């Protein structure tokens, strides 16, 4: 899936220090969450690693995100492609996949993701 750019209109981005504050954990724990794919982030315009704030709910990484990121990673999506796909409106879902995940439509989102192979 070629990505020309990650959608940024209306997206709030959190750096690692912002995530430390938002999650109430150490910087090493934030890095572990990224390494273990509970969160996924990108470097925008060569800047620091950033994660969309919508990937966080109630001071925790969105639980539905982890498995979806794993599915997309297994399909050889780059982190930029994963973030882009999650944020862009999907015709099959009728909304951006991240919105569908937040609405409890995890199985449907993963089913759509698996058709991207």
Structure description:
The protein is mainly alpha-helical and 117 residues long. It has one domain. 45% of the residues lie in helices and 11% in strands. The chain is built from six helices and five strands, in the order βααββββαααα. It has helices at 16-23, 27-35, 63-74, 79-87, 97-102, 106-114, and strands at 13-15, 42-43, 49-52, 56-57, 60-61. The strands form two sheets. Strands 1-3-2 form a three-stranded antiparallel beta sheet. A two-stranded antiparallel ribbon has the order 4-5. The chain is globular and about 35 Å long. It starts with 12 loop residues before the first strand and ends with a helix.
Write the SSE topology.
Blueprint (H helix, E strand, L loop, with lengths): L12 E3 H8 L3 H9 L6 E2 L5 E4 L3 E2 L2 E2 L1 H12 L4 H9 L9 H6 L3 H9 L3
Antiparallel strand pairs: 1-3, 2-3, 4-5
Helix pairs in contact: 1-2, 3-6
Features:
117 residues; 11% strand; mainly alpha; two-stranded antiparallel ribbon; 3-stranded antiparallel sheet; 6 helices
């Amino acid at each position: 899936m070629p990505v020309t750019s990650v959608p940024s209109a209306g997206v709030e981005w959190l750096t690692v220090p912002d995530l430390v504050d938002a999650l109430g954990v150490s910087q090493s724990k934030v890095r572990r969450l990224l390494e273990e794919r509970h969160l996924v982030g990108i470097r925008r315009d060569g800047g620091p690693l950033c994660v969309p704030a919508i990937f966080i709910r109630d001071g925790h990484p969105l639980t539905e995100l982890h498995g979806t990121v794993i599915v997309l990673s297994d399909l050889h999506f780059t982190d930029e492609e994963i973030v882009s796909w999650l944020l862009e409106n999907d015709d099959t879902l009728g909304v951006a996949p991240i919105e569908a995940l937040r609405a409890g439509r995890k199985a449907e989102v993963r089913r759509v993701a698996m058709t991207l192979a």
